[in-house]
Amino acid sequence: MTFGAVLLVAAVGAAQQPGRRAWQHRLELDIPLPVPVVALDPVNPYAVPVDTAPRRLNAIPPKKLQLAGWAKVAAYVDSRGQCRGAVPLVLPFPGITQELTGDLMKTRFEPARAGSAARPSWIVLRIALAGKLKESAVVDQDLDLPDPSSPPRREAVGIVYPAGRLASLPAADPSTLTSSAVPRRFSIRIPGGEREVAIHALVHVTASGRCDQFIPVAVPGGVVPWLSAYLASWRLEPATRNGEPVDCWMKYTARVRLKMGTLSSTSVRVLTDEHFVPQDAP
Questions:
Q1: Same domain for 92 and 229?
Q2: How far apart are CA 205 and CA 235, in angstroms?
Q3: What's residue 123's pLDDT?
Q4: What are 143-159's pLDDT values in tens digits?
Q5: Structural domains in the chain (count)
Q6: What is the spatial distance between Cα 224 and Cα 142, in angstroms, rounded to a whole number?
Q7: What is the dihedral of CA 248, 210, 52, 253, to 10 degrees?
């Protein structure tokens, strides 16, 4: 937003102009004004007033379900093409770090190069993993109305620090490389077993007592298909307002136990547009 300001200035020779005096000359300047800061009220758009909250009547934990997700992992590959260690950045399932990094350290790579010279480097891999869910059970769960003054926020990913020995290994500056390290042959197999998962999501309950959509707030990517199948089985007594059933959002938190079969990699890709810079832990 600007306002025009009028300044009266003297101009040499202005008096020579007929019909105009020197002090009558106008100079137009645009003077920018500061933009005001507007504070927003912390209002939760998913919280709506209801007289009674939904009540879950029936729910069936899924079994024999195919689950899939992707992991993002930073791997250190030396100049001989050996993976000396890895740092998981995103995991689709909990409790797979040790097996995932162990298999990566057995993988042979073509090392990164600067011209014809091999160089040690960090690379970021996107690994698709899939496996079959055998059985599942809900250990603990809560279904609550959202807090009107607390908007939902996805959990932020914290800074990931490699182990001390990895952080101290020399690595080429990505800008100096002419090619990235790539796996020669790649296979990840993670043995099955029971895994406990924490879940936090917003679920939408319709006036007919069904859950028709949800928003993952803190749900591992590989567990999203399980949650989708589980919510589809819900039957609820809907929320009411003025004696009438209404749609509403609810906050759902749970601890779930999944009995999984073997997880296997289905694809891998080097993310050449992403770089990992190790940092020493504070």
A1: yes
A2: 9
A3: 97
A4: 999 998 888 776 665 56
A5: 2
A6: 18
A7: -70
Residues 160, 208 share a domain: yes
229 φψ region: left (φ > 0), alpha (ψ -120 to 50), beta (else): alpha
Quick: pLDDT tens for 165-223: 888 899 999 999 999 999 998 999 999 999 999 999 999 999 999 999 999 999 999 99
In this structure, the answer to whether residues 20 and 122 fall within a common structural domain is no
Is the per-residue pLDDT at 32 higher than 50?
yes
The burial of 79, by beta-carbon neighbours within 10 Å (0-12 exposed, 13-18 middle, 19 or more buried), is given as: middle
The answer on pLDDT for 239 being more than 90 is yes
| Domain-embedded: residue 14 | yes
Q: Residue 39 falls within a domain, yes or no?
A: no
- What is the distance between the alpha carbons of residues 145 and 203, in angstroms, rounded to a whole number? 10
- Structural domain including 6 reads 2-32
Is the same domain home to 17 and 130? no
In a domain? residue 59: yes
pLDDT digits (tens, 9 = 90+) for 96-136: 999 999 999 999 999 999 999 999 999 999 999 999 999 99
Q: 271, 126 in Cβ contact below 8 A?
A: yes
